[in-house]
Amino acid sequence: MSDAELVIVRHADTYWTASGQHTGHTDLPLNDAGRAAAAKLTERLAPWSFAAVWCSPLRRAMQTCELAGYGERTERRDELVEWDYGDYEGVTSAQIDAERPGWDLWRDGCPGGETASAVGARADAALALLPPAGCVLVFSHGHFLRVLIARWVGLAPVDGACFVLAPGAIGVLGHEHGRRVVRRLG
Question: Can 66 be counted among the known catalytic residues?
């Protein structure tokens, strides 16, 4: 197991994030509030020194990374893209529930898209790429990062439902007494 630690950043707001629409692979830019929040990340991330900077190739994550001051250092990682919502892309949870009462992303996945276990396989692939030591800065997406957190601490991908990161939030995944832990969320 790598001794590397992760500082994770959820991309800042887009218009769909603000409206609650599922935004998987639709490549939206940040909105004005998102750009302002991303620029403030520079100061919040200043205390760390990073061995590597990884980013989802989707525009909202790349813009967050660039506005935070890490655009020139970033390695794009396809493993870090958001959950593929398939037929539910661009749709809110309330709209889905009106057509499919009781639907749960974590349990049911998305028709034409991914299941939690598929997202978990991508999270595992990303974790397998960690360097032996050092701190890695990761810019990605809300649901993907929740699965990544679950996998970091040895939980099933569906247990990502227990974690939440707001747009533009920072989390820290580290170690304590040889065990992977969540040091900070939000």
Answer: no
